[in-house]
Amino acid sequence: MSSESAPGQFPRPENAPDNLPSLSTRLKEIAVVFLRLGSLGFGGPQAHIAMQHDEAVIRRGWMSQEQFTEGVGLCEMLPGPASTQMGIYVGYVRAGWLGAVLAGICFIAPAFVIEVIFSWLYFRFQGVPQLEGMFFGVAPVVIAIILAFCWKLGRKAVKDWSRGLIAVAAFALLLIGGVNILLLFGLAALVGLLLYGPKKGPLSGIPILLPWPVLTLAQTVVATVPPETLILSSFWGLERIGAYFWPLTLFFLKVGGTIFGGGLVIIPFIADEVVDQLGWLTPTEFLDGVAIGQFTPGPVVLTAAFIGYKVAGVLGALTATVAIFAPSFAFILLAAPVLLRIRHNAWVKGSLQAITPTALGAVAAATVPLAQNALLQQTTPASLVALGIGVAAFIALMRFRQPTWLLVLMGGGAGLLARGLLA
Which neighbouring-strand residues pair with 5? Predict the structure, then answer.
């Protein structure tokens, strides 16, 4: 078997054919596979990665098990959506830079189109009683999904009392202290170095993964846009994109470059600024946007498209989506060789040890006001119904492992029925 290298910087898998197909053939294969995965990618990042493993390793022999495992480890240490990064990595191994870009775009594109369609329907018919009734039942389901995510993340992140204390401290600092979330994650990395890094040793040779000066600038520029309640006036958003292109770009570059711990970790980042500071979305719209992301395929961070659509139509959705995924492409294409070498470095591993429990505390803190908005209705009977829907959804997730998209649909049906009975 030939040991010739693959188009990327990784060795060919042992089960790869001796005669590698032409680049155009490999690109066509990548496009077909990832368009299908992007269209059927329900179930969250772990399900997406499992589907990629089945295609790339088992069925097609594009890469070895060792290569795939190394890629998973690389993507888990990076900020951003791991399943999208894994797709980019698979494309890179198969067909170099072109394969990486094509795999990422094809994985994202189907879900983006669906997200834009649902966003248009949502804002087009916002205020219609039937739609409000449906999302009355959907909102508690979203809270249940977030709480189930927190439970699973907690089992992974809280390995001892010190990590539990970090999670509690992050929760308190965000909910009570109002600490800036980027500052909080920076402090978490420092705490991780102190508590879990080697007791002594040089720090040289470890690159700074997060461009903190750029992200700080993004924070400043975005903050200059005055808070307002946006009322979208066109499908394409031509009248708004000029004013909101840079705010959307810089904000979602920042989010895409700093979210650790899974797709739903996006919630505290977005709720803090998009809802509380900038006023681009109301709390209800934000919850509804997360819900829409649950019954569309693809990565959860495509909630960015929903927000971008509210701000500046289809062009805003495209801007937000490109910005939030751009760091994922950059990390894999530009930094992968370095990151593969340093991911076992004790200093790097130590800093990451505190980030996951911090993400847990951040998500939990962001959930509190969202839960109040979803569960505390104008009347006691309505509040009890909302609570009942949320509890039932949580049990269905944790005990019966029902898919989130099905629970969102069932919650919408229950909300319509309940609103009719409560009217």
Answer: 11
